[in-house]
Amino acid sequence: MNRLTPDSLARSGRELALDRAQMTPGIVHLGSGGFFRAHVAAVTEDAMAATDDLSWGIIAVTQRSADVAEQLNPQCGLFTVTERQPDESSTRVVSSVLSVIDGHGSPGAIVDAIADRRISVVTLTITEKGYRFDARSGRLDLDDPAVQADLSAEGGPERRSPTTAVGQIAAGLRRRFRGGAGAITVVSCDNLPANGRLTQTLVRDFLAAAPDDDDDELAVWIDTNVRFPSTMVDRMVPATSPDDLDEVERFLGLRDEGAVVAEPFWQWVVEDDFAGSRPPWERVGVQFTDDVAPWEKAKLRLLNAAHSLLAYLGLLAGYETIAETVADPAFERIAARMIADEALPSLTLPRGFDGPAYCGSVLRRFANPALGHSCAKVASDGSQKLGIRILPTMRDALARGEIPTASALAVASWMHRVATTPVARLDDPAAAELVELAAGHEAPDEVVSELLTYSRVFDAKFAANPAAVGAIVDWYVLIAAEGSDGLKRKLLS
Ligand code: CS2
C-alpha cells in the first residue's frame, strides 16, 4: 500500500498548497477528529495559502485515542478532504497539520505544546462532553472522575500530565505564565452557547480548585494575556467509512488513512477578541464579529435541533442516514415545523441573517444523499445536546403561551430510545444513569416522568410544566403503541 506522504504525492505529480519547509507552528488544536480536519485545518490552510503567512502550522492533539496520530503521523500530517454533493465530489489534500500528539499516550507533550512561545492560538473541537462541565451551573464538574484525577495529581497541574482538555489548557497557561511565553487565545469551536465564555469559566474553575503559590499573579496574567472568543462553527462531517477510504485511494492512487468527507458548505463566525496575533482567517471567508451569540443561538436551535430530531426519528423508523430520514415527507414536515414555527420565533437573528431561507437551506443540506451522515452519530450524546438544542426553544414557546409540540417530539423520541436501547448501545456518557431511571417502567407517563428527573438535562420548572410534560407524554404514548408507522400517519394527517 502506497501511503499518502509529501514524497509520494510529489512523485504522483501533485503539489501541496503550502511550502512545508517554511511552515512553522502557530496553533495547537485539541480534539483532532473529522470535523477539525474538514473545518479548522482546511480553512487555516486556505488562509496560509492566500497570504503566504506560513506561521500558522497546526500541532494537532488527539484526546481519547491514538487513532488519529496513527493515521496522520506516518503521512507527515497530510490528509484529504472530499466534498460531496449529490452528483459530484472533489478531493483536496490539506497540508496545514505539522504533526499529531497522541494525548492519550503522552499528555505532558500537550502542555509543552501549549506553552511553546511560537504558539499563539489554541483551538478546540472536543465535543460537548469533552468540556466536563455541569450543565446546571455552567461550571466545571468537580465530581467528574477525570477532572478529579487531574486535580488530585501530586504537585498540582503543572508537574503532572492532565488528561482533560480544560486541565491541559490550565496547565499550559500556567507554564506560559511562568516561562514568559506571551499572550495566547483559546478558541472553542464546539456547538455550545457562549463557548468562549464557558471555556474561560472552566479554566478558572480548574485553577481555583488546584491552588498554587503564584495563583494571584497567574489570575492577573490570564486576565491580561489570554482571550477566549466565542465562535459559531458549521459543517456537516460524517464518520469516514472504509468505502470512503477506498474511494479516495482510487482517486489519489495513494492510501490516506486520515481521509474525511464533508458537505461543501462551511461557516465560521468568530468573536473578534484575540490576545496576540491570529491567523488571517478573514481572508478566506471567516466572519469576525463583536457578538457571536445570535449566530450560535440560531445555528443550535435551527440546524442542530432539527438534526437531533431527525436522528431520533430516523433511528425509530429504521433509517440509516439523516438524508433518508429527511426524505420521508412526514419527518421533513415535522422538522420544518419545529424550526420555522417554534425555534425561529424564539430568536433575535443576526443582521443579514434570513431566517426562513436558513431553515430551507438547512433541510436541503440534510437531504444531501452523498454525505451518508448516520443517524446514530447525530443521535449520540443526547444528554449533552438536548438541553442546548431543544429545551431553550421549548421554554421560550411555553413562555409565549404556545405548546411546542414538534420540539416535544424530539424529547419524546429521545426518551423512547433511552428506554428501549440496551445501555451498551446507547452512545452517551450518561447512558447508565438514564437507562437505570427508565428501567422497570412500562407506562409512557412513568418513563417520561422518571427521565424528567434527570436534572442535568431538565430543570425542575420544566419538568413540572403540565403543557410540556403533556406534549411529551402524548408523543411517547403514540410511539410506544403504534411505532414509527403510526407516528408518520399522525404527522401527515
Ligand atoms: C450534529 C453536528 O452530530 C451532531 O450532533 O448535529 O455535528 C452537526 O453536523 C454540525 O454541528 C454541523 O455544523
TrEMBL record:
Residues 26-282 form the Mannitol dehydrogenase N-terminal domain. It catalyses: D-mannitol 1-phosphate + NAD(+) = beta-D-fructose 6-phosphate + NADH + H(+). Pfam families: Mannitol_dh, Mannitol_dh_C. InterPro entries: 6-PGluconate_DH-like_C_sf, 6PGD_dom2, Mannitol_DH, Mannitol_DH/Oxidoreductase, Mannitol_DH_C, Mannitol_DH_N, NAD(P)-bd_dom_sf. One of its GO terms (molecular function) is oxidoreductase activity. Its EC number is 1.1.1.-. This is Mannitol dehydrogenase family protein. Residues 291-474 form the Mannitol dehydrogenase C-terminal domain. Keywords: Oxidoreductase. It comes from Luethyella okanaganae. It is an enzyme of class 1 (oxidoreductase). SUPFAM superfamilies: 6-phosphogluconate dehydrogenase C-terminal domain-like, NAD(P)-binding Rossmann-fold domains.
